Amino acid sequence: MYTTLLYFIFLSGVTSFSTTLNLSDFFTDQSHNFINFLEERGNEMEEAFSSSYARAMKMKNTFDSYVEEQQNKISTEINSYIENVKDRGQQIANSFSYVPTQDAASALPSPDAVLTVPARVVRLGYNCETHTVISQGYILQICTELVLLQHGLFASSADWILNGPDKALAYVLADAGYDVWMSNIRGNVYSAEHASLKRNTKSYWNFSWHDIALYDIPAVIDYIMKLKGEDTKITYIGHSMGSTILFAMLSLRPEYNRVLTAGYALAPVAFMSDIKSPIKALAPLASNVAHMEMLYGSHEFLPKNSMFGKLVTSCSIEYVDNKLCRNAIFQICGENEKQYNETLLPVFLAHFGAGTSWKTIVHYAQEIVAKGRFQFFDLGPWNNKKIYGKEKPPEYDLSKITLPIKLFWAQNDLLSTEKDVKHLQESLPATTDVYLVPDPKFNHLDYLWAINTPSLLNNEILTSLQNSFGNSTNS
Length: 475
What we know:
Protein name: Lipase 1
Organism: Papilio xuthus (Asian swallowtail butterfly)
Family: Belongs to the AB hydrolase superfamily. Lipase family.
Pfam families: Abhydrolase_1 (PF00561)
CATH topology: Rossmann fold
Number of helices: 18
InterPro entries: AB_hydrolase_1, AB_hydrolase_fold
Strand content: 5-15%
Shape: elongated
Helix content: 40-55%
Number of domains: 1
């Protein structure tokens, strides 16, 4: 603006340069005009500045109002959300913590298949205590509810309660007033701990039922006597391998013939030359298979995470109609459709395979191959000579057994046959009693789960116990 103005004045002066008077007046007028012009422009600039400031202040106020409004809105929404979460959290907490509900999805589909032995016993209204015994470092567990029950191969104390009240022997004995003790062998799920050995080592699994008979069951009996008193009368009842342990213990530790009151063997196993089960054909291969397995670091026989263990687990309650599992058991132990409890099979198999060693399996395989010898573990000629003093392993001296024994056997038991039971009876004292289960189809596992166990087995056991304890008192 100022450049244009000066340029305009210069032109006017040139064009109006005529006389001195006119030039003087001209400059006087132009000076007033210029001053007026500057004043007007100054006013305009002041107005423009004032107007811009007002608009800027208005804009600032508007922005401040917007920000404040948004802050208030956000604050309100956050407070509302927090209050909502508090309300919902309180409702959830109330529903979970205080309000009783019947949630079907939370229920176990088959409690008996997953609960431990103590839990099952207590759930059914019985008292159960757990005792721990240490034998050669193995921490053994005894569940008590005085009859001592010893389970068989691949099993645990669960065997004695699977059939439920009124049928399972542990409950029947407890209801009859007996103090019932159920021991678990070393290495199984209830006696898995050791004081110094790792479970996945050869040293841990280097045992068979010989070691259990020599050390573990005597330790259990000693514990009971110490707890209950030296005059306590104990009857031992063993199923399958439980009976093997009894005969071996009484031979190896004959002093326990005087400690126990009587010994009952359900499906007795000692001599195995006449077994009818298909596993007989596998016996000669057992030692080689075990050797190969142990080379790969597997000293436990068919653990739960093995292929066979997973196959057994697959026989769950949902697939109970699948006859594969049932037929496999019938093939090995004997078929008995009449006493077969279909709903109990998945419960039984859930507890089956509780843990044992390859050495135990090989020891039984040696019994089968030994053709009528009830013998120590065969270590091979060189080691036998070194350990036992001769190339063949010694036999258990059954003539040392003086304890009153009763053998319970069945005609359809493929693992404890009539010929082998008679051989055992002839090797025991003349006072040995024998009971044939009055069902021609009764098999090796029916002692644990048969539908008619009260009439076929339990009543005879109760009568025998009354006689055993009665005779002991009279003597």
